[in-house]
């Protein structure tokens, strides 16, 4: 079999056989197939797509490209949640402790941010001392002991995705449904949880730019998960504006702490309650959405959800004093207010533009090796639907860089104003099951 024949076959729009897909994944993981051929195939897949069988085979080959985890030693239903990426998306930091406090076993492997999207691991690492590396045994013990662990994927798990995702990121081939579906689902399947809830984002700040493609991606992933015996559901959530007010690592952790104390932004909490209700039903811990919703509100009100975050941070070596006293986080040297030159109702806050600006302020990576400034980012003061007068505060930027002035016009451009009131749509548009 020759890689060049596989590339030309897909380029010309023909389906690949199971053997060809296996040849590609095995050869690329081992290092026998070079990056330039893998990126040519990724681009051909992006343009020509794949049918259901091809996507299922690709997912399977990726899942077994390395070790898989056996979580059977964890007592109870293991739940996992995965977002396809967004700006200001600190959902896992709030939702996972919430469902843990309701009795779910959260065994979650998260990723890092790249480009304009943030990653849960980076956010967690803004808590001094916290480690996201654990052996399988430590991971299992922690979930058994306190009901929750969020760690990084071990290097043995789905090595094919590690290589392929990094390659796609620099070759303009991230936004392909077969590649996203196989990347997400191979990791979720290999990490061994019983139930999976996918948060498939769409809009300016997401990889899927519209609701239709998000629905197609969600349906593809839900079908793969359910066909392999994992209870899999998805929500389609709006990422046209950043989620919540904070964008940037430590800033987002502080917002998550506030949310766990009952003071979360409306859109973030709506997403957490909707996802939480689905997860509790999936795990058999609630028999209806209403019951689940009541349970979730209760654990926020009585502090048990916050306590789950404290337990997790402590178990992973983090300094919990920051959770009790968020003012301990050192602020950036430069804190600059961005004020509006326009007036009207905010129709749009371009999440991509805000995510990119935040990354350039130091909160994200442009390449995998870049170091993150945990204190950097943006706090929005206004959200879509708000009325703004000239001179009103739009947002505050936090950075240790000195060239921030160049970014201010782009940040102002991210806001679109209209003269009449704007109807604000709920953040969750659909559930796919
Ligand atoms: N998240 C992933 O894990 N993989 C993708 O391809 C896109 C988002």
What does this protein structure show overall?
By secondary structure, the chain is an alpha/beta fold. It is 46% helix and 16% strand. The protein is built from 17 helices and 13 strands. The chain has a 6-stranded mixed sheet with strand order 3-2-1-4-5-13, sandwiched between helices. Strands 6-9-11-7 form a 4-stranded antiparallel sheet. A 3-stranded antiparallel sheet has the order 10-8-12. α9 packs parallel to α10. The mean pLDDT is 95. The structure holds uracil (URA). Uracil binds at residues 84-85, 111, 165, 174, 179-180, 183-184, 207.
In helices, the fraction of residues equals 40-55%
List each distinct ligand once: uracil
Radius of gyration: 21 Å
The count of DSSP E runs of length 2 or more, i.e. the number of strands, is 13
Distance between the termini: 39 Å
Low-confidence stretches: none
User: What is the approximate shape?
Assistant: globular
Q: Structural class, from secondary structure content?
A: alpha/beta
Strand line-up in the sheet with most strands? 3-2-1-4-5-13
Count of alpha/pi helices = 17
Q: What can be said about the biggest beta sheet?
A: 6 strands, mixed
Strand content: 15-25%
């Amino acid at each position: 079999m020759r890689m060049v024949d596989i590339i030309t076959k897909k380029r010309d729009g023909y389906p690949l056989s199971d053997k060809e897909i296996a040849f590609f994944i095995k050869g690329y993981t081992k290092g026998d197939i070079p990056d330039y051929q893998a990126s040519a195939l990724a681009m051909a897949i992006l343009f020509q797509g794949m049918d259901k069988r091809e996507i299922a085979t690709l997912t399977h080959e990726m899942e077994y490209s390395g070790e898989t985890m056996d979580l059977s030693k964890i007592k109870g239903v293991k739940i996992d949640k995965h977002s396809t990426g967004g700006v200001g998306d600190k959902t896992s930091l709030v939702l996972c402790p919430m469902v843990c406090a309701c009795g779910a076993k959260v065994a979650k492997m998260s990723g890092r941010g790249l480009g304009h999207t943030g990653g849960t691991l980076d956010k967690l690492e803004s808590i001094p001392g916290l480690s996201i590396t654990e052996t399988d045994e430590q991971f299992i013990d922690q979930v058994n002991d306190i009901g929750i662990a969020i760690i990084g994927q071990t290097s043995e798990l789905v090595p094919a995705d590690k290589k392929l995702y990094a390659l796609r990121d620099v070759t303009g081939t991230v936004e392909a449904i077969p590649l996203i579906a196989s990347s997400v689902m191979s990791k979720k399947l290999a990490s061994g949880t019983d139930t999976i809830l996918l948060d498939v984002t769409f809009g300016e700040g997401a990889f899927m730019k519209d609701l239709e493609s998000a629905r197609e991606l969600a349906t593809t992933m839900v079908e793969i998960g359910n066909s392999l015996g994992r209870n899999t559901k998805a929500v389609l959530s709006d990422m046209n504006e950043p989620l919540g007010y904070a964008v940037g690592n430590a800033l987002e952790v502080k917002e998550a702490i506030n949310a766990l104390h009952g003071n979360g932004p409306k859109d973030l909490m709506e997403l957490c309650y909707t996802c939480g209700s689905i997860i509790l039903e999936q795990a058999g811990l609630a028999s209806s959405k209403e019951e689940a919703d009541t349970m979730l509100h209760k654990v926020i009100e009585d502090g048990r959800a916050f306590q789950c975050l404290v337990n997790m941070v402590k178990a992973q070596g983090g300094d919990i004093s920051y959770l009790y006293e968020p003012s301990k986080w050192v602020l950036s040297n430069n804190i600059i207010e961005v004020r509006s030159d326009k007036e009207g109702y905010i129709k749009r806050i371009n999440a991509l533009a805000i995510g990119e600006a935040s990354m350039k302020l130091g909160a994200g990576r442009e390449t995998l090796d870049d170091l993150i400034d945990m204190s950097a980012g943006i706090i929005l003061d206004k959200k879509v639907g708000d009325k703004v007068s000239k001179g009103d505060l739009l947002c505050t930027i936090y950075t240790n860089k000195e060239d921030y002035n160049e970014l201010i016009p782009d940040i102002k451009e991210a806001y679109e104003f209209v003269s009449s009131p704007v109807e604000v749509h709920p953040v969750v548009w659909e559930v796919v099951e």
